[in-house]
C-alpha cells in the first residue's frame, strides 16, 4: 500500500492531441459547412475577430485563412496515424468538426460524408489499438448558427449541440470510449468568437453576454454528459479547462486573494461541470456586477445530475498576479491569459512561461478540489524548428521541456493524483490557434509547410519522435527512480 511506484501505470494513455480546424484542412470537402475558425485570418484582423470585436461571416479574397488547408490530415490521416502508432501511442485526441456533421448546425439530418470520415479515422486508429479521445467542440461553431442565432448568446444553441452530441454518441458508440464536451471552456471569457461564436456589438454589456453564453454551454455540456451516459454507459466523458495555477507575486494577503480570485474565474466553469452547481463566489460576483443569468427551472437539476467523469485540462504555463500597479506593468507576452512575469521562470520564444513544477502544483490543486481522475490533454512547447540537410530536426529544447514536465507529472502521481493519460499538444506540427502560424511548432513530426501556406506538406521525424517513443516503451520508468 505504501510501496514506491516504479513507472507510470500500465494502462496510462500516452498520446498526442489535436483539433479539427488546426490539422484537417479540406475545409469545404465532403459537404462540410463553414465554421467560425475558417474565418479567422492571419494578420492584423486576427485578434479583433477572435475576440469578437470585428465580425467575419465570409472569407475575403485578400486574407489568408490557415484552417482551409492546414496540414491536410483529411487526406493524409493514414500516413499520420501510422507514425503515431510507430511512436507507440495508446490514444489520440482529436476533435470533430461540428460543420462536417451538421454543415449549418440546425440541419434536420446529419451529413453522411462527414460521419463516414470520422468512422474511417477511428477505424484506422483502432487498427493500431490507439484509443480515440474525442473533443465534441474545439473552438468551432457552424457560421450559420452565428449569423442566424448569435452563437452561444442564444439558448437555442443548447438544442443544436445536444442533437449533434447525440448523433456522435449513437454513431460511434462502439468505437469511442473517451469524450470531452467543450475545449478550454473558460476561454470563452478571453476569446469570445473562438470560444463561443460571439460577436460583440458596440455598447453591449460584455460580461452579461459572456456569462449568459457560459450558462448555455454549461447546460449543453451537462446534457451531453447525460446522453453519453445513457447511450454509451461504459464511456467516460470529461470537461476541459485551460489550466495553470495563478501564483501571488508576494505573500501580501491582498496578492494571495487576487490570485485566488483569478483562479476562480476559470474554476467557476469546472465547479459547475464537476460539482453540479454555481459556486457561492460566482453568485456574489454576479450580484455585485449586475449580471442576471436567465435560467430555465430545469437547469439546476440538469447541472446537478450530470457531472463529468474526469477533469481534462491543458497546461502550458502557470500565471502570476499582483495588486501593485508597478509590478502589474511587467506582463508576459503572447498568451491571452494576462500574467505578470514571474522572476523565477523563463519563457518560450513566444513569451509563454515555462514552469514544469507548476504542472505538479496544478495537478495537486485540481485533484484536491474535484477528487476525480485527471487527464492532461494538452501540454508542450511551441518553438521554431530548423529542418537539417540530413532530414531531421534536432529539437533538444522540446525534449528538455517535455522531460521536465514528465518528471513533475510522475511526482504528482506519487503524490496520489490519479491521472488517466497525457496527450502532448500537436504531436504533428499544425496551425497555431493563437497566432495562426505554422512556425510555432509543437510536433514530434515536422510538416513541411510555411506560414504563408507554401511547402510540400511532407512529414519528417524529429529527434523528439524517437525520444517520446522510448519514454512510452519504458512506461516512463526513468521518472520513478
Ligand atoms: P497556440 C491560449 C492560451 C492557452 C491555451 O496554443 C490556448 C490558447 C489559444 O491560443 O489554446 C490551446 O496554438 C488550444 C489549442 C492551441 C494550444 O492551446 O496558440 O486548446 O487549440 O493550439 C496552443 O500555441
TrEMBL record:
**Recorded family membership:** Belongs to the glycosyl hydrolase 1 family.
What organism does the record attribute this protein to? Paenibacillus xylanilyticus
UniProt record, GO biological process: carbohydrate catabolic process
GO cellular component term of the entry, any = cytosol
User: Per its UniProt entry, which superkingdom is the organism in?
Assistant: Bacteria
The entry's protein name is Amygdalase
* PANTHER family in the record: 6-PHOSPHO-BETA-GLUCOSIDASE, GLYCOSYL HYDROLASE
Q: Which Pfam families match?
A: Glyco_hydro_1
User: Which GO terms fall under molecular function for this chain's record?
Assistant: beta-glucosidase activity
Query: Which ranges of the sequence are coiled-coil?
Result: none
The beginning of the lineage is:
Bacteria, Bacillati, Bacillota, Bacilli, Bacillales
Catalytic residues as annotated in Swiss-Prot or TrEMBL: 378
The record's section on InterPro entries has: GH (IPR017853), GH_1_N_CS (IPR033132), Glyco_hydro_1 (IPR001360), Glyco_hydro_1_AS (IPR018120)
- Keyword tags: Glycosidase, Hydrolase
